[in-house]
Amino acid sequence: xxxxxxxxxxxxxxxxxxxxxxxxxxxxNLNLLVRALTHKSYDNENPGxxxxxxxxxxxxxxxxxxxxxxxxxxxxxxxxxxxxxSKKRASLVNESTLxxxxxxxxxxxxxxxxxxxxxxxxxxxxxxxASALEAVLGAVFLDSGFDQAxxxxxxxxxxxxxxxxxxxxxxxxx
Length: 174
Description:
There is one protein chain. The protein is an all-alpha fold. It is built from 9 helices and no strands. The protein starts with 12 loop residues before the first helix and ends in an 11-residue tail after the last helix.
């Protein structure tokens, strides 16, 4: 497998460009994006060939996502109480929703996985897709700060916020 300067397979370089276009954000440090798309299994099987795995970026992205969407929802629904806002945010920041957005962005084609994870269909697992999306958002935050990460999050989630049926009973507490 041929890799680029950023340690990413050269045959997927065009897909990285496409992802940056889809999220309307161009990375200053492409290695952050590559790390966001690197699963721990790949990092373990390829010591020294990657920039590390995405778990810390996922942790950071989750926090940025919660704060950004919380702020967005307060502005969108100024009359809502805390409980209602929490339920709205939870309906957006869950594995199901995140994996759908990740799928729309084509992340399943970009996640670097170890052999076992690849064989078991890891790139289609909702948890891995959701985690990769959170890691990408964490990478945007590290690359450019909260304002840029928040703008990216708003672009990605606004269509869902606008079309979500908020009157439906909230069935699952995420």
